[in-house]
Amino acid sequence: MAASHRRQLGFSLVELVVGIVVLAVIATGFFSAFSSVMKNTTSPLQVVAMENIASGQMDYLLSGSFQSAVAASGTAPTFNVDGTAYWAAIAGESSIVGGVSVASGVHLTVTVSAAFCASCVTLTGDSFDVQ
Questions:
Q1: Torsions phi, psi of 77, nearest 5?
Q2: What are the residue ranges spanned by the domains of the chain?
């Protein structure tokens, strides 16, 4: 009878199930935290798309006249790239050169944003239309 009560090696089925349940709970917490972090990150392709939009808008504004750059201020055109909506907020203000406001100059800021990233890319530039 004493031989049947030998010390058992290994885990019982109950211990194994409890261990699996504990690991599953820990993994679920880890993956949910990781998932929320990944939702708020920007992929390099999205950054390139936003940089291209901002650069294109800045080139368009700087190639136009002073009046068109001022008129564009406060607008937010929307762009759709690969199913993702981006908007470019355009702000303009009169430029100050040497402490004096230049009537025919404007300082432009183009800020591109998306639902996953507010104010991700910002470009600034000056437009001078002295005529």
A1: -65, 145
A2: 11-39, 44-128
Q: How confident is the model over 20-78, as pLDDT tens digits?
A: 999 999 999 888 887 766 666 667 777 788 888 888 888 887 777 666 766 777 777 88
CA contacts within 13 A on the Cβ side of 81: 18
- Contact criterion met (CB below 8 Å) for 36 and 28: no
What is the reported pTM? 0.55
Pick the CATH number of 44-128 from 2.40.128, 3.20.20, 3.30.1300, 3.40.50: 3.30.1300
Separation of alpha carbons 106 and 30, rounded Å? 50
| 117 in Cβ contact with 45 (< 8 Å) | no
